[in-house]
Amino acid sequence: MKKLMVAAILAAVVLVPTASAAVALSGAKAALADRDLTLADILTYAMQDERIARAEYEVILDTFGSSRPFSNIIKAEESHIRYLVDLFADHALAVPADDKA
Questions:
Q1: pTM for the whole thing?
Q2: What whole-number percentage of the chain has pLDDT above 70?
Q3: Measured between alpha carbons, how far is 44 from 59 in angstroms, rounded to an integer?
Q4: What is the dihedral of CA 34, 36, 38, 44, to 10 degrees?
Q5: Mind listing the pLDDT tens digit for each residue in 4-27?
Q6: Nearest Cα to Cα of residue 96 among 40, 12, 37
Q7: Distances (CA, A) of 87 to 27, 28, 33
Q8: Does the first or last residue of the chain, that is N or C, have fewer Cβ atoms within 10 Å of its Cβ?
Q9: Which residue has the higher pLDDT, 85 or 35?
Q10: How many helices (H) and strands (E) would you count in the chain?
């Protein structure tokens, strides 16, 4: 039963429309296309990636309920976001708005 649940959740990663499907060009993909990166750009792209990942796992948890390892992964994404917020503050940069929900 547990293997079936994990398989269903993994299938949802591919089948359930997620925030990243609605995002045109952001995060790592945008960084690869950007030929004039600044520190602010790099941090912004990293923040976008973390927020996209968090939004994807929120969809999985909303669809299938709280289940490990996904509940643990979303906590990790939130930690990464907090670290990035600190980096923005360290460099006196404004944290971009969260539009990935």
A1: 0.70
A2: 74
A3: 23
A4: -10
A5: 444 444 444 443 444 444 446 788
A6: 40
A7: 17, 18, 23
A8: N
A9: 85
A10: 5, 0
